Amino acid sequence: KVPKGDSEEEQIAKINYTISLARKLGCQIIALWEHVNEANARYLSLFVAELEYNFKKHAK
Questions:
Q1: Residue 57 and residue 54: Cα distance in Å, rounded?
Q2: Average model confidence (pLDDT) across the chain
Q3: 8 A C-beta contact, residue 11 and residue 37
Q4: Whole-angstrom Cα distance, residue 10 to residue 60?
Q5: Quick one: which of 47, 57, 55 has its CA closest to 19?
Q6: For residue 5, what is the DSSP state?
Q7: What is the residue range of 50's domain?
Q8: Helix residue ranges per DSSP H, the chain
């Protein structure tokens, strides 16, 4: 989860920013901010896998 020191609005803003950056990098992200905030293992795994795939694709 996002650290508890932030307000809920700040947590959502940070998560949405991270997802939007990944999409701008060309990743096909299907996770929503709720999935990340709840630390849903399946969606977090897909998120990280897509980032890694995109990185390797562009590193060639």
A1: 5
A2: 87
A3: yes
A4: 36
A5: 47
A6: T
A7: 8-59
A8: 8-24, 33-37, 41-59
